[in-house]
Design a protein that fits this description.
By secondary structure, the protein is an alpha/beta fold. The protein is built from 12 helices and 7 strands. Strands 1-3-2-4-5-6-7 form a 7-stranded mixed beta sheet, with helices on both faces.
Length: 242
């Protein structure tokens, strides 16, 4: 569940939370860079339960509670913590704010899903159902790794997409201003799954209006998986703001 590099005694924890149907291995492009970086960080790579269990068996709240229980022993010993979340992991990172007390939190949120209005959902669901039928003929680890049909369809009684649509991210920030130290949001030009750059910028501006230090970084010409095409920019984004 957790792997740590650098010091055995955790002083500068940086928690990494991957996205849906991914694993901590998605962060392997950062391993060498952090190990060789001059300033020591204690990098903790977390596994979401939806990696080794069907996502449909886990609500966002359930996943968040699971992650919090695992990181709480570290939180109790430090005054400052950094949480890096990608995609669904970014949503989990924001949700964790309501559970964290007496610790200053810096958030790095990449490709955070900010979906389109609910009125277009019927059409989106129809498209995803078609994708689901086609991709269901292939092993889960092949097609869902790129299209995520099982994440976006309502073929199951529980649909995590519908739950994400009901999450008020702005309210999460507003109610936990006392623990949020700063927020860094990033996505690529072709990251349409996150709602696009303008959608991300609007959230940044809304957070800034609350008096929270928030910044946006354009990761360049990459899609929802910046670790594939923007590895160096991603690392520089982290190091510049850590």
């Amino acid at each position: 569940m957790i792997s740590i590099i650098q010091n055995t005694e955790i002083k500068n924890p940086v928690f990494f939370i991957h996205g849906a149907y991914q694993s901590p291995i998605m962060w392997n492009f950062l391993f060498d860079d952090f190990i060789n970086y001059s300033k020591p960080y204690d990098c903790v790579f977390l596994s979401l339960p939806c990696y080794y269990q069907p996502l449909e068996d886990n609500s966002v709240n359930k996943i968040t509670e699971d992650i919090f229980c695992k990181i709480k022993p570290v939180l109790d010993k430090v005054e400052n913590v950094t949480i890096v979340g990608h995609s669904l992991g970014a949503i989990i990172a924001v949700r964790l704010l309501s559970m964290i007390k007496n610790t200053n939190v810096s958030l790095f949120l990449s490709s955070m899903p900010l979906f389109l209005p609910k009125k277009i959902m019927p059409l989106r669901m129809l498209i995803e159902k078609i994708i689901f039928k086609i991709s269901n003929k292939f092993p889960r680890e092949i097609i869902p790794r790129t299209l995520r049909p099982k994440l976006l369809t309502n073929y199951h009684e529980y649909n995590i997409l519908e739950e994400i649509l009901t999450i008020d991210l702005q309210n999460n920030f507003q109610e936990n201003i006392d623990v949020v130290k700063n927020v860094h949001i990033a996505c690529g030009v072709f990251d349409f799954l996150s709602g696009g750059i303008n959608t991300q910028l609007r959230l940044v501006h809304d957070i800034q209006k609350m008096g929270i230090n928030a910044q946006f970084t354009n990761l360049g010409f990459c899609g929802h998986y910046p670790q594939i095409f923007s590895k160096n920019k991603y690392f520089k984004w982290l190091i510049k703001n850590l």
